[in-house]
Amino acid sequence: MRGYPAQEPFSPIGERYHVEALRLGQGVVGEESAYGPDPYQGLLRFPAGQAASGDTLLFFHGGGWTNGYKEWMAFMAPGLNAGGVHLVSAGYRLAPGHVFPTGLEDCTAALLAVLENTSGRVFVGGHSAGGHYAALLALGPYRGRIAGCLPVSGVFEFGEGSGLPSRPRFLGADPANDAAAAPARHVVAEHPPFLLAWGERDFPHLIAQAERFAGLLGDTTRLVLPGCDHLGASYDTGRADGAWLPAALAWMAAQA
Questions:
Q1: Were 135 and a residue from 114, 118, 155, 183 both cysteine, which residue would form a disulfide, CB within 3.0 to 4.6 Å?
Q2: Which domains does the chain have, with CATH numbers?
Q3: Contact residues for 194 (Cβ-Cβ < 8 A; gap 6+)
């Protein structure tokens, strides 16, 4: 991607996702803006036009906290826009050059930029690492300004018992970050509603994490995406004939 500093080399699964996400979003053009000076501190806005309900979904890409671009999520825009929802895809600075809490601080700044420029409701969501950041935002100090949270195949636990095959490098050297970065450790009684989604064939440790997290949240909507693996769960968010898009549109419309 032009204009960005180099990222970590893609893993095979990351390369596959990069190619497919850009293919799915080919020809979908958003409005660029920045919320900070770094090239990764940018937003892509996809307005719903005359069909707009006034709702906005701020969505964060995945990539294991070390890869990813806001352009990846462009393929979500046509379906959401047709349902009346504005999409804003946000970038954030990546590890290993930037460790926790830098990425979360960027996502917070992106949220504030969106809140300052919309009069309607703002929902947050994300895929994988992006779902992790969305969940932290929805449990953080600005949770009262968030209408709902829609993590897809998110990460909610770190450290012992999380099931992660290795400790993510974005956590840095400080072991205290394992708890500080874990949404499951920050659940509060008053939080926005959650729509937790994951693929039927997703990574087993993420399925287990999502089920435990749902239990901690209490009255939470769960959505298992039929036939989807970890990458397929993301692709499903742009499919009008998939499970996530119609469910997400109906769920957002139903929130008080």
A1: 183
A2: 44-254 (3.40.50.1820)
A3: 135, 138, 148, 149, 150, 151, 214, 217, 220, 221
The full 3-state SS of the chain, as one line of letters, equals CCCCCCCCCCCHHHHHHHHHHHHHCCCCCCEEEECCCCCCCEEEEECCHHHCCCCEEEEECCCCCCCCCHHHHHHHHHHHHHCCCEEEEECCCCCCCCCCCHHHHHHHHHHHHHHHCCCCCEEEEEECHHHHHHHHHHCCCCHHHCCEEEEECCCCCCCCCCCCCCCCHHHCCCCCHHHHCCHHHCCCCCCCCEEEEEECCCCHHHHHHHHHHHHHHCCCEEEEECCCCHHHHHHHCCCCCCCHHHHHHHHHHHCC
Structure tokens at 114: 């969106």
Name the token pair of 161. 């018992």
Among 165, 159, 205, residue whose Cα is nearest residue 182: 159
Q: Report d(CA 157, CA 164) in Å as an integer.
A: 9
Yes or no: say if 73 and 110 are a contact pair by the CB < 8 Å rule: no
